[in-house]
Amino acid sequence: MLKRLLFTILIFLPLAVKGQILKERRVYYIDCSFSMKINGIWDLVRDKLKEAIEKVNDETTEILVCPYAYDMNSSVKAYRELATQCGKDKLKSIIDNLPMTKSTMTYHEMPLRDFYNNRVSSDRINYVFLMTDGMTDHNKGTDPFPRELNTWHSIFKDKHVYGFYVILHEKAKNYKAALDV
Fold first, then answer.
1. Residue scoring higher pLDDT (24 or 18)
2. Across the chain, what does the average pLDDT equal?
3. Segment among 82-91, 93-102, 153-162 with least mean pLDDT
4. Residue 120 belongs to what H/E stretch?
5. CA 133 to CA 173: how far, in whole Å?
């Protein structure tokens, strides 16, 4: 009886464990404002993003590339593919052809709002990467980005959601320092 029970557990344990392992979703928000070019980082950021996408080995991983820029009233477009070689090639081609706006400023709260309103997957581990040069159109003290970060934190605390603010320029470091309150 004990052998049969042990055998049953060993047979079904991998199925139980497999059901608990969540697949990944990686969401990359890339600032497409003209300041990225002025600051000399536009081409480098796109190249590094393509490298990061190419390094994803698990073909079940969902990858979303979400360009954003100045227009507060526009929605954030998401390009979604699985991390198959074909999917990664499609995303890299999209990144090569991302349009850049004429504005040098952007609203950094846009990607956060877009993420928690449209991009969270409850059946996956979510990784969010916000890539920006830190140039914002808000005056110091009126920027809603810190408030949005707090909202984001309260919504996703103790969930499978992890965010990364990728500092791409010296101004972004200054901006980050203002957030560390």
1. 24
2. 75
3. 153-162
4. none
5. 9
Q: Which residue has the higher pLDDT, 121 or 15?
A: 121
- Average pLDDT, integer, range 62-87: 84
Based on the number of CB atoms within 10 Å of its own CB, is 65 exposed (0-12), middle (13-18) or buried (19 or more)? buried
Q: pTM higher than 0.70 for the full model?
A: yes
Burial class (CB in 10 A: 0-12, 13-18, 19+), 53: buried
Confidence of residue 53 (pLDDT cuts 50, 70, 90): very high
The 10 Å Cβ neighbour count of residue 163 is 18
Secondary structure of 30-73 in HEC code, one letter for each residue: EECCCHHHHCCCHHHHHHHHHHHHHCCCCCCCEEEEEEECCCCC
The whole-angstrom separation of Cα 44 and Cα 30 is 12
Question: Hey, CA dihedral for 146, 148, 149, 155, is it positive or negative?
Answer: positive
Q: Decide: 115 and 148 in contact? Cβ < 8 Å.
A: no
Q: For residues 137 and 91, give the distance between their C-alpha atoms in angstroms, rounded to a whole number.
A: 29
The candidate with the shortest Cα–Cα distance to 68, out of 11, 128, 13, 123, is 128
Tokens 């049953």 belong to which residue?
8
